[in-house]
């Protein structure tokens, strides 16, 4: 033990390998030369018999709808390549190929899918269904034309909520308020009128511009707008005599206007034309007065509106809309009046005709009927006003004499309008052979 410990202690002090002379005798290092040599030829070539291993069960294919989007793309790689190649060879869009496949697979059984496929094949796109949502204009038109209350509108919105989207009540109200001009009271609170006729005309023209652009109709900046105007009274309707009617008078008098057309002022190209100019739904009120039609009421309406209409005829309108400046020439036809109103406005209560100076006896004269220029339109509002100024006395009455038709020409009262009554021209057009 002492020898071994001495040897170990000595070896730790030396840099030589820690092998002492005493341990060298007891250990023997195995080298490669000591191993026996083994050659490959000593073993014959023998193949191991195949081992029958059990086959693992094949993984079932998952349903296409249950795989992830990445796996779906992987599964459709070959099909997409074939579709792209087919579309390229036939010089059509891939969507058109899919559309025809959809049409071919469904034209016998599912007609609606076949229709969609045919549309996709022909156009390469499928238009959005217009009936799936009502915009504000459609909603307001539905509410106005059917005269629906707010509760009716809420019921329709709730009933069709699964198939048609209808805007909310407050949105409809805000949109409708943008389409109404400023109004004010008149006739001691018995009626209301628009503050400016130009506001109503401007709103109408802007609406026509918006609708034209919405339907991809290109517009010029120089436009010609035509409208008709007039007034009339009504008092025979049962609603005015209802017990719960808050009106103190069973009559109502209205001043109205109706748009006729919008066209290019330079070329005459028509962008929009009213297909139902006599429909009540196209009429826009300018004044509503709860009074019976009378002389003083007609005077008030004409004195209020005729100067504004004449200014629009002479100067037109110019405004900015949607970042574009429009200059609009305006034609106003004073044609929405019945014969009763025209008789009062013209002051020709004793005239046989408001348009010419002929008498009833001449209308039955065959020779005169054959004359080309026998029934020309010769009366004008200016001539009638000049005649009134000549015939008026200091008392304010018109000079009347027996058999004075040649001088008085049927004038019975003060003319209330500066407009010519040339829209009652049916007989004159027929006789003169004009249109």
UniProtKB/TrEMBL annotation:
Basic and acidic residues bias locations: 23-65
Domain V(D)J recombination-activating protein 1 RNase H: 228-350
Region (Disordered): 1-72
Any Pfam family hit: RAG1_RNase_H
Protein name per its UniProtKB record: V(D)J recombination-activating protein 1 RNase H domain-containing protein
Natural source organism: Didymodactylos carnosus
């Amino acid at each position: 033990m002492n020898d071994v410990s001495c040897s170990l202690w000595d070896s730790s002090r030396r840099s030589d390998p820690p092998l002492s002379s005493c341990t060298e005798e007891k250990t023997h290092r195995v080298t490669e030369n000591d191993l026996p040599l083994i050659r490959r030829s000593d073993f014959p070539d023998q193949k191991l018999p195949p081992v029958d291993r059990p086959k693992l069960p094949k993984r079932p294919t998952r349903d296409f709808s249950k795989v992830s989007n990445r796996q779906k793309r992987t599964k459709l790689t070959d099909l997409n390549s074939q579709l792209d190649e087919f579309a390229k060879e036939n010089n059509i869009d891939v969507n058109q190929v899919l559309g025809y496949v959809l049409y071919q697979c469904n034209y016998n059984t599912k007609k609606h899918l076949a229709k969609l496929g045919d549309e996709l094949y022909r156009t390469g796109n499928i238009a959005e269904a217009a009936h799936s949502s009502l915009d504000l204009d459609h909603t307001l038109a539905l509410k106005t034309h059917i005269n629906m209350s707010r509760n009716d509108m809420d019921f329709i919105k709730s009933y069709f909520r699964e198939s048609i989207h209808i805007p909310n009540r407050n949105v409809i109200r805000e949109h409708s308020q943008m389409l109404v001009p400023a109004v004010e009271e008149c006739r001691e609170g018995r009626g209301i009128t628009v503050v400016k006729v130009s506001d109503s005309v401007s709103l109408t023209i802007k609406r026509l511009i918006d609708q034209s652009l919405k339907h991809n109709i290109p517009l010029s900046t120089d436009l010609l707008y035509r409208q008709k105007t007039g007034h009339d009274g009504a008092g025979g309707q049962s609603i005015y005599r209802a017990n719960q009617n808050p009106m103190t008078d069973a009559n109502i008098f209205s001043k109205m206007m109706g748009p006729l057309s919008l066209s290019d002022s330079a070329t005459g190209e028509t962008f929009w034309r009213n297909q139902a100019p006599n429909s009540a739904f196209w009429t826009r009120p300018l004044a509503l007065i709860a009074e019976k039609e009378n002389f003083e009421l007609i005077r008030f309406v004409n004195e209020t509106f005729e100067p504004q209409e004449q200014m629009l005829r002479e100067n037109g309108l110019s405004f900015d809309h949607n970042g574009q400046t429009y200059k609009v020439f305006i034609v106003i036809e004073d044609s929405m009046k019945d014969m009763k109103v025209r008789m009062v406005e013209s002051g020709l209560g004793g005239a046989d005709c408001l348009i010419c100076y002929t008498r009833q006896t001449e209308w039955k004269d065959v020779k005169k009927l054959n004359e080309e220029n026998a029934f020309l339109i010769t009366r004008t509002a200016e001539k009638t006003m000049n005649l009134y100024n000549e015939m008026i006395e200091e008392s304010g009455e018109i000079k009347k004499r027996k058999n004075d038709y040649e001088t008085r020409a049927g004038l019975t009262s003060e003319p209330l309008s500066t407009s010519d009554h040339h829209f009652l021209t049916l007989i004159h057009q027929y006789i003169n052979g004009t249109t």
